[in-house]
Amino acid sequence: MSVSTEARELGLSILGLGTRYPPYTLDSRAVEELSKRYHPETPAMQKVLAINRFTGIDKRSSIGRPDHWLVNQPEPPTIAQLHDVFMSDGVPLAISASKEALAEAHINDVSQITHMVSATCTDSANPGYDHYVAKALGLSPFVEKTLLHGVGCSGGLAALRTAANLCLGHSTRGLPARILVVALEISTTLVRSELESIHSNQETRIGVCLFSDCASAVVVSNDIPFSPTEPLPPPVYSLLDWRHQTVPDTEQDLGFDTHPQGWKVVLSPRVPNLTASVLEPTYNSLMSGKKLPEGYGSPKDFDWAMHPGGATILTGAEKVLGIQPEHMRASYDTYVNHGNSSSATIFSVLNRLRGKEMDGVAPGGRGARELVVGCAFGPGITVEMCLLRRNLSRTEGGRKGMETPPETEESSEDGEGGREVSEEEKKGSEVSEEEKKGSEVSEEKKGSEEEAFIAKALESVELD
Asked: Residue 388 in contact with residue 168, Cβ under 8 Å?
């Protein structure tokens, strides 16, 4: 028995994935170090630092360490300085992730890329960062570029949905479509601004405990080859269907507000309950009318690629959907070892899910499932959910390249484009071989007892 004809006829494939994390990792002590360096102990700061110790995140990926010059100035960095670092340290990550995705998609001639859809919520400029990624990759000036704004953590799947619709448009016209989808987020540089707000306003702002840096990319294709002699490579995933929904009257619960010192995370205590409440109806809508293969009758029969917005979001999904942590094993693995990288995270999760070691810890030892549900939440609150069919014969991708630092040179200028970096600062930005080894993520899955402890600890923390 197969997926419905309607889903199969879409002819949409993900041909390649790429993920790049920067070379530094931060544990919970990094936030505490900067907090003590610049702010006195206050009730709000103590509360945030207590939450910081129980996020369930072991390490967050970052473009720098607590001694990075950008977060060690008398005042938090300006939005202009943040933009310059986004371009100097972030764009090379996006270029590397794109190259990895293109290589796996067997696209040796970049002139075959017809569209580019990108997302970020940690930068804003005209032209957008996608312009410079396209230029570095040598894409044709005729490539149709689209940069999404205002989509936050759901940006990866929003970009995938947009690419899918563009593919279908080209299919209707009888034209081949090869779309490069890119997501790039540099979040850790906002730490000083967030700490300043916690101190000045005595607010409990937990975004400073969760977010990390990452770039990821996928290549999306329709089923029309460029020529009869150039057949399409086998897909990594096939995209079968998707849903987008906005939860009414939740604009004040989840967002990212513009500020002279970058962006300010909006994250209310209602978010875990709100996201949990919309999961089941969105899932039911996604599955409505589909003739699924035998053995797929409820959420627990699928594998899940859930955006790890926070531990309470993942544990809330388990309760509502009746699934186990192992169903979202790649989400937990990404969250624990890298943190929440906003829009770039979901492609990292999908990349991680196909690792052989992930298959070995599937629920009940059943092995990997062919059908996968992807899900992410963004500001609004919006939910993006999609149904994917994984090509189980292609498991070699996995973690390949995910921890590799980009091949870039250290910048000798600051965000204002003129200050020379001191020898002490340069030394603080160097990574020793021992530290590189220490940043490599363990392949062992976190035990269910540890996850239960984290969930219980978080449930006891008052977030409002």
From this structure: no
What is the Cα–Cα distance from 407 to 420, expressed in whole angstroms? 22
Residue from 316, 347, 314, 320 nearest 210 by CA: 314
The partner residues of 377 in beta bridges, in order of sequence, read 383
For each of the chain's 464 residues, which pLDDT tens digit applies? Answer: 334 434 346 999 999 999 999 999 999 999 999 999 999 999 999 999 999 898 999 999 999 999 999 999 999 999 999 999 999 999 999 999 999 999 999 999 999 999 999 999 999 999 999 999 999 999 999 999 999 998 999 999 999 999 999 999 999 999 999 999 999 999 999 999 989 988 888 888 878 889 999 999 999 999 999 988 888 999 999 999 999 999 988 888 777 777 777 777 777 778 888 888 899 999 999 999 999 999 999 999 999 999 999 899 999 999 999 999 999 999 999 999 999 999 999 999 999 999 999 999 999 888 999 999 999 998 988 999 999 999 998 765 444 434 434 333 333 333 333 333 344 333 333 444 444 343 333 334 334 444 443 344 334 333 32
- The gap between the terminal CA atoms of the chain, to the nearest Å, is 49
* DSSP per-residue letters across 323-336: --GGGGHHHHHHHH
Burial class (CB in 10 A: 0-12, 13-18, 19+), 174: exposed
- Helices 91-104 and 129-137: crossing angle in degrees, nearest 10, is 50
Q: Residue 11, Cα to own-chain centre: how many angstroms?
A: 25
Domain that holds residue 240: 5-406+430-459
| 91 domain residue, yes or no | yes
| 346 inside domain | yes
Residue 417: what residue type?
G
Closest by CA position to 371, among listed 345, 355, 397, 353: 353
3-class DSSP state of 381: coil
Catalytic residue among 121, 153, 167, 386: 153
19 within some domain: yes
- State the CATH number of the domain containing residue 310: 3.40.47.10
Residues 391 and 371: beta-carbon distance below 8 Å: no
* Dist CA 17 CA 351 (whole Å): 6
- Does residue 415 belong to any structural domain of this protein? no
The answer to whether residue 153 is catalytic is yes
Q: With contact defined as beta carbons under 8 Å apart, do 113 and 139 qualify?
A: yes
Task: Characterise 407 by phi-psi region: left (phi > 0), alpha (psi -120 to 50), beta (else).
Answer: beta
CB 278 within 8 Å of CB 249: no
Task: Provide the number of structural domains found in the chain.
Answer: 1
**Closest by Cα among 168, 83, 164 to 120:** 83
Instruction: Find the angle CA(124)-CA(126)-CA(130) to the nearest 5 degrees.
Output: 80
Coil/strand/helix, residue 445: coil
